[in-house]
Amino acid sequence: MKAAGKEKIFCDVLVAGGGVSGTAAALAAARGGAHTVLIEKEKVLGGAGYFGLLHFICGLYLNGDTLPAETLNHGIVREIVALLGDISPHRAIRKIGRVYVLPYYREDLRSVFTSLCRKETKLSVHYNTKAISVEKKDGQIMKIMVEHSGSGSDILPKAVIDCS
Q1: 13-26, pLDDT tens digit by residue?
Q2: What is the predicted pLDDT for the residue at 5?
Q3: CA 28, 80, 125 angle in degrees (round to 5)?
Q4: pTM score, two decimals?
Q5: 2: how many CB neighbours lie within 10 A of its CB?
Q6: CA 153 to CA 84: how far, in whole Å?
Q7: CA–CA gap between residue 35 and residue 61 (Å, rounded)
Q8: Which residues are bridge partners to 13 per DSSP?
Q9: How far is it, in rounded angstroms, from Cα 138 to Cα 38?
């Protein structure tokens, strides 16, 4: 929803940062019925999972002697793992030291995140967008001023999740 003058974007939830945690948070909020805005400073989703040098997701599996059959958590995490497996089935769970990890290709991660976000009608993703200032009242965030390609907008959220 927009108002006259400077663009104003009203939402239930604003998620700052489109990395692994921010994308998952935005998906969960939108799937929960919240009108959600995800801002990402880069041109793609994935954060350190995309731009970093290590291409393993750890923390997904129970550590031990036996190769885990599934992730520790249900929901979005398991969905992302399944989609990555569909794209690159040869990228199987492996053990590094004592930890089981899931290797992935960065373009696969980007593709999965982009695809999942596009399917959510209550989620709007704003790429190349930076939060430049925050306006608070009585300790509550009232407005986030963002910049995209030299122009600014105000986002007026009911709740903010900072994953930047």
Answers
A1: 999 999 999 999 99
A2: 57
A3: 50
A4: 0.90
A5: 10
A6: 34
A7: 31
A8: 36, 159
A9: 24
Q: Tell the residue number behind the tokens 């986030």, with chain if given.
A: 144
**Other C-beta atoms within 10 Å of 4: how many?**
6
CA-based nearest residue to 57, from 27, 21, 86, 30: 21
Two tokens, residue 99 = 């930890």
Tell how far CA 157 is from the center of its chain: 17
Name the residue with tokens 């041109």: 43
Sheet with 123-126: list strands edge to edge. Answer: 123-126, 36-39, 7-16, 151-162, 140-148, 129-137
Distances (CA, A) of 93 to 22, 35, 59, 64, 70: 23, 35, 12, 13, 10
What tokens appear for 129 in the block?
């967008």
